[in-house]
Specification:
Largest sheet: 7 strands, mixed
Strand content: 15-25%
Radius of gyration: 17 Å
Number of helices: 6
Length: 190
């Protein structure tokens, strides 16, 4: 096995919410775990001039300018709460524009169901915003799948050995079984 530098995990400050970028030891391969866009009080990753885009997109835009084209091995939506997905569609669409390959989209299966329910129930501005954010995310994922060959995987049961990077980094996805996930989503929808 080659001698690689350590794995890096970038936890981006987006206020209330999650946006994490995993940088594999080769410094060219990345993973995205959730993606909340910045609160209005949080400037973008590079500072002045990128206040209106998620920090994750600013990160890749900066990286793209500095080095050769990075590859996103996976983009993962852990669960369908707005502070984990608002901004994800903008990041994935921006990666398409930057011609950065996204190999896999990992999803908590109930997220698509929530998108459909929110769209049907959209009676307040807040619900409508959530519905349009999720709807746009799945539109971009379909573009990635249909036009760029991105695979979709669902986090509905414990999975192992999903990804082994040449550096020896292995990612195991731990997720609730289908019944527990369904019970959780039914509770959340009430």
């Amino acid at each position: 096995m080659a001698d690689y530098p350590p794995l890096r995990v970038h936890v981006l400050d987006v206020g209330h919410g999650d946006s994490i970028i995993v940088e594999f030891p080769d410094r060219q391969t990345f993973g995205i775990v959730d993606c909340h866009r910045c609160a209005e009080t949080q400037p973008g990753y590079m500072g002045i001039g990128d206040e209106h885009e998620p920090k994750a997109l600013s990160f890749f835009r900066r990286f793209r300018k500095q080095r050769t084209r990075p590859v996103v091995q996976f983009a993962c939506l852990t669960h369908p709460h707005a502070d984990h997905y608002r901004g994800f569609a903008q990041v994935l669409s921006g990666l398409l524009d930057l011609n950065i390959e996204v190999k896999e989209f990992w999803d908590f299966m109930a997220s698509r169901r929530k998108a459909e329910v929110l769209k049907a129930l959209a009676s307040t501005h807040e619900q409508h915003a959530d519905a349009s954010d999720l709807e746009e995310l799945y539109h971009v994922v379909e573009r990635l799948r249909d036009h760029r060959g991105c695979k979709e995987r669902f986090l509905i049961q414990p999975q192992t050995d999903w990804h082994v990077h040449p550096s020896g980094v292995r990612i195991d996805c731990l997720a609730p079984d289908t019944q527990t996930a369904s019970e959780y989503m039914n509770y959340q929808m009430l």
